[in-house]
Amino acid sequence: MYKVDIPLDTKESAAIQARKNKEAARKSRIFNARERTIGVDLAAIDEQVHQRKNKEADEKRCHEAYAEMMIRNDTTAQLMDARNARIQGQIQKDIVGFRAREQNPENRREWDLNDPNGLKKSSPLGANDHGISSLQSFVGEDIYNSDRTKHQKEQIREWSLQLQAERKAAEEDQATQDRIYDLKRIQLDNKAQHLEACEKMERQEEIDAIKEFNQRAAEQKRLEQEAMKNNELANNAQEIRNQILGDTLTENPDVARSAFGPHRVIPDRWKGMSDAELADIRQVQESQRRENLAKQDAQMEREKEWSLHQTSTAKAGILMERAQNRQSAEERKQLDLENAELARQQQAKRKMMDNVYTNVPTDGYYAQFNTTTR
């Protein structure tokens, strides 16, 4: 009977593939040391991804809005530039038209000087119109000289009168200002003199008050110095009397006694110890000397005993150390023998195991471990 590969059921194959996918996902999670020890917060990662997408979408909308605004501003600027160009063109046209209508050369003030046909349009000077051949007036003749001269004289006289009136008014105004200035200066001088007199009077009163105060202070100081001098003389006399009649120079030993007890004295009044006190001190010093000699003898005896004790202790320590060294040598010898026996036993066991276990594991044997999650 021949072997025929029967196809698996679709559901079963789908289930097997699902198990394989789950096993692969489980393996990827378990064999990843970082995810296995730390873990991955999928919800937080999804939230971060969502936030990043929202941020990118917001930035895109902002860029698009900014681009639209820039396009709109550019369009507005172009329209405004075109409008300004049209307005400037219309203004230039209006200026040119105005100049053509209102500013013709014939309407200018100096046109009679610049008119090329001026001589053709001119007529001879004279009271009446007549032809050139009448010989009543000639070029350069000034028939209005007398009138113009009279008019100029009248004008000069009017100007002179006006200047005289202005000069007179200015002089009167200046005189008035000078009088006001003089009156103001006199008033200020009088006020300054009054203030100076008041200041001198106040200064004199202040000087008199200071002088009187200084005199009183000097008199008071003289009296105080005299009183201090008399007081100092009285104190000196009293001090001399106290020194002469006091206990300091009279060598009174009672003045050195303290109120805190008979064993205490006042240092600045102490006159020295008496013979009885000196004898007591010498007796106490002699007893202390004998006690110190006895203490020194006892100390020497204790030091001798301690030295003997240290010597005996050192000898006993040396003997104990030697015994311990011999015991340690015996223990090391016994340990060496035991280690040699153990080494011989382990070597024999290793030889036996080499003979028993001949199948040595290869790398493939160790590679099959840690390949599945179960």
Task: Write structural notes for this entry.
This protein has helices at 10-30, 33-37, 42-102, 111-114, 118-121, 145-245, 275-356, 363-367; strands spanning 257-258, 261-265. By secondary structure, the protein is mainly alpha-helical. It has a domain at 12-80. Strands 1-2 form a two-stranded antiparallel sheet. The protein is flat. The model has no long low-confidence stretch (mean pLDDT 81).
- Number of E-state strands: 2
Cα Rg: 72 Å
The biggest beta sheet, please? Answer: 2 strands, antiparallel
The amount of beta strand, in percent, is under 5%
| Spatial sequence of strands, sheet with the most strands | 1-2
Residue stretches low in confidence (pLDDT < 50, at least 5 long) are none
Q: Helix coverage percent of residues?
A: over 70%
The tally of helices reads 8
SSE run: HHHHHHEEHH
* Structural class label: mainly alpha
